[in-house]
């Protein structure tokens, strides 16, 4: 089994290792400790998340959806999937050098995502037009696509940056 196909019981160790050409990305050192909603409990029963960058500097993540993300029985809540896409795709814009908030997030849920499973979020900044940064992403495991999203990020006006 690979890191991205293994299923894990709550409380058990979870393998969030990245692909061979990925390097660990330290999100708090870039954006501070405010990302607690999704990635704030690395040993908890909600999400466990580890961010990476690939050789081309695109941001990716390995994510374990724990029992507290449950919506339909045995599967992740759509809001849990959306939260992961919101943080991951917004963070991708920050990692690319843009201080943003998410203005619009469009998600297609393509397959039900079993909980207690490690999946991969891949992202890519696809365009930059003035203050508008478009980031696309997909959440998948092996050949199964669970969700894909388009995230319009807007750079924060100078007067609103803390
Ligand atoms: C402060 C530091 C925080 C650090 C946190 C680190 C977290 C890192 C990780 C992040 C992860 C967490 C991520 C999160 O969870 S971020 C939290 C969730 N997001 C929010 O709460 C954002 C709430 N919205 C706003 O604050 C404002 O509406 C923003 C700032 C987005 C724009 O208001 P602002 O007054 O500044 O700008 P503007 O209205 O002149 O618009 C400018 C341009 O953008 C276009 N446009 C705008 N909205 C939309 C839209 N919905 N669809 C299509 N287009 C839209 C608009 O047409 C215009 O285009 P153009 O006419 O110029 O062509």
UniProtKB/TrEMBL annotation:
InterPro entries the record matches: HotDog_dom_sf, THEM4/THEM5_acyl-CoA_thioest, Thioestr_dom
Q: What positions does the domain Thioesterase occupy?
A: 74-144
Spell out the family assignment given in the record's similarity comment: Belongs to the THEM4/THEM5 thioesterase family.
Q: How does it sit in the membrane?
A: Peripheral membrane protein
Query: What is this protein's name?
Result: Acyl-coenzyme A thioesterase THEM4
The answer on whether this UniProt entry bears the keyword Transcription reads: no
Supply the enzyme class, top level: hydrolase
Q: What is its EC number?
A: 3.1.2.2
Location within or outside the cell: Cell projection, Ruffle membrane; Cytoplasm; Membrane
